[in-house]
Write a structure and sequence with these properties.
By secondary structure, the chain is of the alpha+beta class. The protein has 18 helices and 20 strands. It is 33% helix and 14% strand. The chain starts with 7 loop residues before the first helix and ends with a helix. Bound molecules: adenosine-5'-triphosphate. One of its GO terms (molecular function) is 1-phosphatidylinositol 4-kinase activity.
Length: 655
């Protein structure tokens, strides 16, 4: 049963501070070392974006915190969940770190539009935020570059220099200015991302924590990725502008349901990414790419590969003329907008640079040294320390891609080749796994075989749900002039792993829906145990749900192999146009101007999951993955060679 909550307008009056037991705070210093004393300040963010400051002490547990939040939101403790990154807080709060946001959600996941949402109640809760207008979350040394910017902006706000909304992009973004009126930072609130509840551009329909524009990046979690990209850009190698997560309070921010032109618009607090504004002349989609320095393209490419960037389109590369005279050879590139990197599962990355000539030029010595010195384990530890809410699945992607980069470079591959091996191909509207994904599929198959020593006897024929049209014989053929052989003879009728994995997502979703419906009914009767089941669903969301029965056909030769074959009958329609800016991929098609998330989200396919493996399986998987890389790279080199030979032959034939 849902309790009556406040009106949508009140709902959106984000409140930062109210009286005890959720207290006021005035800066960070007194909490330094708070973790060791058990006293911590946290920001509780609701699924609709409201932000509340709260102090935890050593005696607090999830229940006591929820009880306090019950006072604020009038939602019973057994109807809400509190999470910190991957961790759904049941009792122990030791995972929670000082100064970081917790997410408060209601347990019933699918609500009708009339269902009220978590909202602070009562006028006494509004507008009592005495903390600074901008507070940097975390105390990392690495964000020292952001501090002076914050100071400048706070000064400017005090004398009435207001921020300006940015027009570009799908999400809400605001340019904050200094006292001279110059742009100093761009701020992107997490609840204004595409499809988030307070998106100002009409892309709404989801709540924080749900799958977002890309299913593998949850709504509200792009900001943490922006910061991760900056932190991973050691020595400012790729030139990512300094970025931090902040809690920021201003009346400019969008709250759907509140008239933006209301002169009495209230202050609202948001959790947002805060990035230094870099003056620039163009973006890469407006400018001749031949003038881009090879080193800049390589450095940005190296970063994109490490972080598995799914959104490196031309608009996300700012171009700054260095000489001011328009001489083409003097430009600097600034990579921005890393909100869609480090997805929770592998999908199709997008690398605008992939066909630029610079990407085919071999790496320089200093680039090779930088890559050689990358230590993905250290990178993961650093991110866990600096951004403790980052999800483990994202860190697995970072680890995997860094290993892939290092091994590829050691095998002599150039940037373009590495990018191509990570990218999927589209053939007649069907999306096929990348070579990287094929290696992962094979590695998973090998570890699954280890777990199930005699698959032929363990698995009945009925478990093979998706047969493909394929003779009971090995496949041989020739692709790009390179002969290939795929050994499938032993398996007979085998199940298409790609279809299976896709199907399993649908099954999982159906199962989830049923669970949620049941949960709704039983919750009405106040049944406690379903909450736990719901948390299990949440966990399965996080880890993807391990499927021990997942069987992959025996593919003896990688890469060339599956990549150039259609393995199943299942057609996956991908509604996207690689290369387009995100905003161009989504168009308004409803008269209200609001785009429903479910209407607009493209179908996406997941060929291989990483987050669902246990620690032990993950270790084994990485071992197999590395073993399989060498043949995959050798194969890629022979394809490149064959292509070059064909090109040469083609050229000579013209004469
Ligand atoms: N650090 C920066 N310095 C200067 N301008 C910036 C910076 N970051 C973003 N911008 C500008 O703000 C615009 C919107 O930012 P951004 O692309 O990051 O938003 P978005 O909503 O995530 O976009 P998209 O829909 O393309 O993913 C950009 O097109 C760019 O012009």
């Amino acid at each position: 049963m849902s309790r009556k909550l406040d009106s949508p307008v009140q709902t959106q009056m984000a409140v930062a501070i109210f009286k005890s037991p959720i207290r006021e705070f005035h800066g960070n210093n007194k909490y330094e070392g708070g973790q060791s004393t058990g006293r911590r300040r946290v920001f509780v963010q609701t699924e609709r974006g409201c932000v509340l400051d709260m102090e935890l002490d050593r005696n607090d547990n999830a229940h006591t915190v929820k009880r306090r939040l019950q006072v604020a939101f009038n939602v019973p403790t057994d109807e809400s969940s509190l999470s910190f990154g991957d961790v759904v807080l049941k009792n122990d709060l030791s995972a929670v770190r000082h100064d970081f946001p917790l997410l408060l959600t209601r347990n019933i996941m699918h609500r009708s539009s009339s269902t009220p949402c978590l909202s602070p109640r009562g006028n006494d809760l509004q507008q009592k935020d005495k903390s600074g207008p901008i507070e940097i979350l975390g105390q990392s040394d690495r964000i020292f570059r952001v501090k002076p910017l914050v100071k400048d902006i706070v000064k400017a706000i005090k004398i009435g220099v207001d921020p300006v909304p940015a027009n570009g992009g799908l999400g809400g973004a605001y340019y904050f200015r200094n006292s001279r009126g110059e742009f100093v930072a761009i701020v992107k609130p997490t609840d204004e991302e595409p499809f988030a509840p307070n998106n100002p551009k009409g892309f709404i329909g989801k709540e924080l924590g749900q799958p977002g524009l890309k299913r593998s990046v949850r709504v509200g979690e792009t900001g943490v990725r922006e910061v991760a990209a900056y932190l991973l850009d050691f020595d400012h190698f790729a030139n990512v502008p300094p970025t931090a997560l902040v809690k920021i309070t201003h009346s400019i921010f969008n709250v759907n349901g509140v008239n933006p032109n209301n002169p009495f618009k209230k202050l609202v607090s948001k959790i947002a990414s805060f990035q230094q504004f870099i003056p620039h002349n163009f973006d890469a989609s407006d400018y001749g790419t031949s003038s881009f320095p090879v080193a800049s393209v390589h450095r940005i490419g190296i970063l994109d590969i490490r972080i598995f960037n799914t959104d490196r389109h031309g608009g996300n590369l700012l171009v700054k003329k260095l000489d001011g005279s328009g001489m083409f050879n003097k430009v600097e590139l600034i990579p921005i907008d890393h909100g869609l990197c480090l997805p929770e599962t592998l999908e199709d990355p997008y690398f605008e640079w992939i066909h630029w000539p610079q990407a085919s030029i071999p790496f320089s010595l200093d680039e090779l040294k930088y890559i050689e010195e990358l230590d993905p384990i250290r990178d993961c530890e650093m991110l866990r320390a600096e951004l403790p809410m980052i999800r483990e699945a994202c860190l697995r992607v970072l680890l995997l891609c860094t290993i892939f980069l290092k091994e590829a470079v050691a095998s002599g591959l150039c940037l373009a080749e590495i990018g191509e091996m990570m990218s999927r191909e589209f053939r007649s509207e069907e999306e096929e796994p990348s070579e990287l994904e094929l290696v992962c599929i094979e590695a998973r198959k090998l570890i699954t075989e280890r777990e199930l020593p005699s698959p032929r006897t363990d698995m009945g024929e009925e478990e093979y749900q998706f047969d493909i049209d394929c003779d009971d014989a090995d496949l041989e053929g020739c692709m790009n002039g390179v002969p290939f052989h795929i050994g499938i003879g032993n398996l007979g009728s085998f199940r298409n792993p790609l279809s299976k994995l896709d199907e399993s997502i649908e099954e999982e979703e159906e199962a989830e829906e049923i669970l949620e419906e049941e949960a709704e009914e039983i919750l009405e009767d106040g049944a406690e145990e379903l909450l736990e089941e719901e948390e299990e669903v949440e966990k399965r969301n996080v880890y993807g749900g391990f499927q021990p029965l997942l069987r992959i056909p025996s593919v003896s030769k990688l890469s060339i192999s599956l990549k150039d074959m259609t393995l199943g009958k299942k057609t996956i329609n991908i509604n996207k146009h690689p290369g387009a800016k995100l905003e161009d991929r989504y168009t308004t098609n409803s008269s209200s101007g609001h785009r429903s998330a479910n209407e607009q989200l493209p179908a996406s396919v997941n060929f291989v999951k990483l987050g669902d493996m246990t620690k032990e399986e993950w270790g084994l998987f990485l071992e197999k993955f590395q073993e399989l890389l060498h043949p995959a790279f050798t194969n890629r080199k022979s394809i490149t060679l064959a292509q070059r030979q064909r090109q040469r032959l083609g050229t000579s034939c013209q004469f």
